C-alpha cells in the first residue's frame, strides 16, 4: 500500500511507542500504529509516497511474539456469555482450530490484509453474524430443509420476512490467542488487477503477500439460544449443523484452501 503526502502516523506533538506496550489492545496497535513506513519518490510525478514494501512481515511480527489478550478479561467475558446462554436455555460448543484460522482479510490495512478484532478483548473472534452465515450456508447446501427461513430468518423483502428462531452469539477465544504469520503468493497479479488487459499466463513474477492468522490449537466457544421458549428444538438442530459446518467447511476466510477448520471438543 502506498500513501501520498505526510507520514501516515498521528502528528500532534506527542511521542508514540516504537513497540507494542504490554497492556495494549493488540488489534488497536496492529491496525492504527504501523510505524514501518519509508518514503518513496515517484520519478514520473516527482511526488513522495509512503510505503511498507518488504517491511509488511516485520510489522505483522510485532504481534506474533506473544499471545494476545488479557487472560482475566477473556475469562470474565466467556463466563458472562456462558451464564447468559444458560439463562436463555441455549447451548454451548467448545472447539479448537485444527489449522490456521483467519477472518477479515478484506478489511483495509497497511499490509493489505486485515483481521477482525474484538473491540474490548483485543483478540481475534468470529462475530455472531458470521457464525450464522456459515451455519446457514451449510444447512442450505446439505440439508435443503423447508425450515431454513424459519430458523435463520427470511432473505426476502416481501411481507413474509421475519427474524429467525435462533440467536447466534459471537465466538470468543477461551484464552489468550497465539498468532502467526502466513504468506500467500499470487502468480497472476496483473490479471487480477485488470483481466481485460492481462491474460493469466506464467510470465508474471510471483509477489509474496504476508498476512496475520490465528494459530492451530486455539480454543473458542460458540453459542446459540432460542429466541422464544418454543424454539428450543431448533437450537438442537442448529447445534448439529454448527458442528458439521466447523468440521467440514470451516469458518472465516480462505476456507476453500483449508483454513478455518475446527475440532469440536465438547459442549452443553
Structural class by helix and strand composition: alpha+beta
Largest sheet: 5 strands, antiparallel
CATH topology: Alpha-Beta Plaits
| Unreliable spans | none
> In what range is the share of β-strand residues?
15-25%
Distance between the termini: 46 Å
* Mean pLDDT over the full residue set: 86
What is the highest CATH level, the class? Alpha Beta
The total number of structural domains is 1
Topology as H/E string?
EHEEHHEHHEEEHEEHE
Q: What sort of overall outline do the alpha carbons produce when their principal axes are compared?
A: globular
The count of helical stretches stands at 7
Helix fraction?
Answer: 25-40%
Number of strands: 10
CATH architecture: 2-Layer Sandwich
Radius of gyration: 22 Å
Overview of this protein structure:
The protein has helices spanning 26-32, 56-60, 71-87, 128-142, 148-152, 189-193, 232-248; strands at 2-4, 38-42, 47-51, 91-97, 166-168, 172-173, 179-184, 209-214, 219-226, 262-267. The protein is an alpha+beta fold and 268 residues long. It has one domain: Alpha-Beta Plaits. The model has no long low-confidence stretch (mean pLDDT 86).
